[in-house]
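Quick one: structure for this chain?
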Amino acid sequence: MSPARSILSVPGHQAAMVEKARTRGADRIAWDLEDSVPLDRKGEARERIAAYATKADMVRVNAGDLADALAVRDLAGWINLPKVESAEAILALRSLAPGVKVLAVIESPRAVLEAASICRAADAVAFGRADFCSAAGILRQDAALVAHAMGQIALGALAAGIPAYDSPCETLDGGDMLGEVGRALAYGFTGKICIHPGQLAACRRFEPSPAHRVEAREIAAWRGSGARRYHGRLLAEPHYRLAERIA
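Got it. Here's what it folds into:
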């Protein structure tokens, strides 16, 4: 999943959005059966998703709803599992849907405290900032506790070697989206979940630019050669290893 930088969440009950989803340019589609779908239209959404989902896709199920998992386990390659609070929830899903990869969404203070074990059990992880703020009683989504949660999730993902996805931007303002992408990058997230096609372009910033790759290849070639000076910087083995990852 590492090449995916943008995941477009598409409400399963919205016929027009579902039909156009693959033309929007997202790295991955996440068909949504959860919060964006009215309770009385969940069945309709499940039927529509069944007609469109492929093994390259992801489906966001309702936490604790076995019917959702049973309905999509043979359709999509990924299940987006919301409101995960422990590794046990992921293991339970795996027993029900073996072979399906799991993106676990961390959305509560308790889940943040369990981030490391959740990341070890999952194939990818995402931050649910709105639900986290609601659970913690935080009015500002840029509060220090939110930053702490992002750091814990990113560290857990890095240690487990899995991708980490930032929460959706709640506005359609391009500046807001770019700002959130910049913050996610600074914390070590590898991509972002999007709720509108207009947000997808900003996610290209998660991918190193061609110029950065050229520089990285030059630096990576020095691995094993000891310390060097490069454009006013003093580089050594840790810099060469990082350059290899970028190149």
